[in-house]
């Protein structure tokens, strides 16, 4: 019997500082065979040239005009020939046995499942990563997985997953109209297309954090509207599968968290979110923040506290750049 092929798909944009380390971690996988496909999404630094330097080691490199991360992932997925799909952002890393550990689990009678794995953040070097168990670190039914993730704001970053190709095909392509939380929206479809989310201990990936100007930290109007759209899509998808008190509560919690996060920006979306929280049965999610923010919220209400917080931050930022 032939060994299943795993496609490692790496979208890259202006990642010259990290792309070589990321590709090296893909090449170092103990599972063979693999194919590694890098899609450079119109980088204006040396990302493409660095990726192309690995072509003699068997990787494929595709260059396209800048269209966004989702478009780059779709381009890589269209070129992939593998039986399993491994996504890997251009600044993240895989432990050498990550794919082999998950694949052995899926091949043991779990081909209708997806595999998640241990992951941890790092800033400069992967040795900084501390792997601490979280509520999603166990085998879960897809609906239970989404409820836990949404109510507790837990996550799996793209590299933590290994997805059978049949499930990826059922989930569909990445939504190229999205920016912020495009990965969350995509993997919610992948989760619902699976029979069970299997958690694989020992299958480790490393999530680089603290990058200036990263998409995940964006607070632009476009980013907030992308996040809003993912909440709408996820709500409709989950309630179409199970419309119950528990699923409606999970959706309401996400909309309430969105309100806390974006207010006082995008007031039209805040108003719509408040309407959806009410329609879904309400949310008991309290505002979160520093002890001083929580104290102020208790005294004057969270909206007033958020406005004060924003004013203080703006004053500090202006002082830091010498405006005041």
Descriptive report:
The longest helix has 21 residues, at 221-241. 45% of the residues lie in helices and 15% in strands. It has 324 residues and is of the alpha/beta class. The protein has helices at residues 19-27, 47-52, 69-79, 98-107, 142-152, 165-171, 182-192, 221-241, 245-262, 267-279, 291-300, 302-320, and strands at 6-12, 34-41, 60-64, 84-87, 93-94, 114-122, 163-164, 197-208. Helix 1 links the parallel strand 1 (6-12) and strand 2.
Write the layout of secondary structure elements.
Blueprint lengths: L5 E7 L6 H9 L6 E8 L5 H6 L7 E5 L4 H11 L4 E4 L5 E2 L3 H10 L6 E9 L19 H11 L10 E2 H7 L10 H11 L4 E12 L12 H21 L3 H18 L4 H13 L11 H10 L1 H19 L4
Parallel strand pairs: 1-2, 1-4, 2-3, 6-8
Antiparallel strand pairs: 4-7, 5-8
Helix pairs in contact: 5-9, 6-7, 7-8, 8-9, 9-10, 11-12
